Amino acid sequence: MRAEWLEDWLDESIGTATRFVYYDYRAGAGKAIDPSLASQMVIQIVRRQYNINGTTVALAKKRLALAFRVLSVWQDQPYLCGDQLTIADLTAAALLSPLALLPEYRESVPWLFERIKEIHLICGEPLPPGLG
Known about the structure:
Structural class: mainly alpha
Distance between the termini: 33 Å
Strand content: under 5%
Order of helices and strands: HHHHHH
Low-confidence stretches: none
Mean pLDDT: 96
Number of strands: 0
Helix content: 55-70%
Largest sheet: none
CATH topology: Glutathione S-transferase Yfyf (Class Pi), Chain A, domain 2
CATH class: Mainly Alpha
Number of domains: 1
Radius of gyration: 15 Å
């Protein structure tokens, strides 16, 4: 039950927060990741479509800070819920992996990205950008 609740919360709240912070970064300091015109146009469309601005990004950063507190159990145990891989681990790894490209998060929550790497390796999946 806890795994399903955590998966739902991650999907509904934290996935959106990740998207807001990621696209804000890509529009500014992270523009060099892919400075092509097509990439920058997509980023601007997404920012307009989701109303990504300074206020919404600040709220998203607060949500991510809460998420890191909730997920901090990952620092001391390999899985979020119990002693096996669950939908919560998969969801957290998938939704938070874009943050690996943002130095702010790579420096402040390095344990998160170690767990994301481990989950990808367990699943036999390639590492996401920023973790390879």
